[in-house]
Amino acid sequence: EAKESGRNCYKFYAQEMGRRIDQYVEMENALRVALDQNQFEVYYQPKVNLRSGKYCGVEALIRWNHPQNGMIQPGTFISLAEKSGMICPIGEWVMRTACAQAKEWCEMGFDDISVAVNLSAYQFSHENVANLVSRILSDTGLGAHYLELELTESMLISDSDNMLMALREIKAIGVTLTLDDFGTGYSSLAYLKRFPFDVIKIDRSFVRNITTDANDASLTKTIVLMAKSLKMKTVAEGVETQGQLGFLSSIKCDVVQGFYLSKPINAAALTELLRKQKGHPVVPRESVP
Ligand code: C2E
Ligand code: MG
Ligand code: MG
Ligand code: MG
Q: Which intervals hold domain EAL (predicted)?
């Protein structure tokens, strides 16, 4: 009887595995079809430099216009794209699209707008990201200093020797390196010392309560001060209120991004925003130089 139940158990396991593999293959296929049929779209969320009060860049954020299910957010498919390896062709498409768009904005006279692209760990372990970046910059004609790459702390934990080499190569091209979601991972100060980041992006979980929670206010202020002494710039993400913006301005955070300024929007809408604001500050510029 034990044998029989063992067999049943195995049978169940095999069926379950089969189902999972089917779902997995289905998802990979769906992502491949999406890429082939142009169902992905890059949205852009503007960032504002607090010293000038003007737009200084955008973050590229992928969206999936699914023919049946409507607009799908990256939170629901990026991890599947990573598991299936589809993140490589998808990530390449995002970078190419974002760089081509930034080049277009340059040619339209919006030549102070940089574009930030998010990367996944899988891309670093399965392809030469530095080569990819060089190729895309030369294909699109975009100047390297207009491109910023966002990495998270979790990407730095494993295989950090290879990561360090890759980041040094990318940095040598002239691209800006940003540590995204700072404060949510291990936030080891050793990472800041070891890896050549130019920008720290303070996670929105800190920003959320800066006007109500003294600890979050003090942590945020400390991160900004630390970044300054390391000659790094700071971006605060998830800014939703005027109060948060005021506080960030008072502690001399360099750049802000969040729904208070704009949600992520498509390229045409962002172009319209840039047109409307051309030459004018979006928020009052800092009074103290
Ligand atoms: P992230 O890089 O930290 O991007 C910021 C996320 O916060 C975006 O979500 C953005 O819409 C959202 N956000 C911005 N301002 C506010 C705000 O004021 N309040 C709130 N509550 N949220 C705000 P989104 O677009 O859903 O992207 C989620 C994550 O998906 C990104 O987090 C990034 O890790 C990943 N992702 C997006 N596009 C790509 C991509 O092309 N490649 C890779 N590898 N990952 C991507
Ligand atoms: Mg990001
Ligand atoms: Mg982030
Ligand atoms: Mg995030």
A: 24-278
